[in-house]
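The methods section describes the discrete structure representation at length, but only in general terms. What matters is that the chain and its backbone geometry are given together, residue for residue. For illustration, here is how one protein appears when written out as sequence plus structure tokens:
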Amino acid sequence: MEMTYPIALYIGAGIAAAAIIVLLFFMKGKKYSDGLRSANNEYVKKLPQYKMLVLEYHSLKVLAIAGLVGMILSATCLIAKPIKVHSDTEEIHNRDIIIGFDVSTSLDSVSVEMCEQVQDLVDDLKGERFGIVIFNGQAVRLVPLTDDYSYVLSELEHLKRSIEAGQNIMFYSELDELSAYRFAGTSSDRGSSLIGDGLASCLYSFTGFDEDPDRARLIIFVTDNDVMGDEIVTLEQAGVLCQYKGVKVFGLAPYFVTDESEFRGIMESTGGKYYNTRSNDAIEELVDDVKDTDVSVTYKTHTTIEDQPEAFIIILMVSSVLFGFAVWRLKL
């Protein structure tokens, strides 16, 4: 137990000492005030009744002093504010994961399954921070880096439902609010499936490169690599940027991926891996490999302060009763 204001204890001790001196002086001053002097009282002092009264008198004096000291000190302790400090150390996995989805319609079946797998990944990797970027003609940061897992899961579910709702729609005019969700902000007159721009947008969705350079960062990147438009950043350039920033990219592509060897090489050049859905276990392998990547670990100490006045309140109440009883019996 600790005191928030320990100086109050020193002040209280001084007040208690002064109170004891005053009380003893007051008791001494009352010694003959209510009685008559008598001579030859040795016989009386030997009587059991007299001895009992003297013992009671001295006991009440001690009780009064103890009660007074108890009241002052317990009140002082309450003013000093007794607290109990709890310190808990939490292990924090310092890893950030950005999930980049190519939301062009050619990836629908892969994206739906990937959403489901990533939902399981988020459930398993509590302690990480997740973000989601969707891209087509341009990129949209759907979820900034966060450890609010319920929010991440709800957005993944919303994205999955949007993709499912639009799988059988041939024209944009047929889109309803749900199926149009993934296209809001990702459509552009520059084209579609701008892969390099999408990867660069994922990279720059990370934060704190300078402040926390050792933090583990990786990207899960889902695309068919079929560029159909004018990119600002090519995939190769985005891969070099990821290397420079120390961000690993785990790329997942369908069996009809464009320029597969080039795509694989760029993914592996970042320290990540390449997966293709022609393998039935591709998504599961990706998720398992992400779980096994290096994680930087830090420890954060949480301190909680709990007020603990109960014991001193009880002492104050008991001391008050004892002091009141002693004073009443002593007729002070």
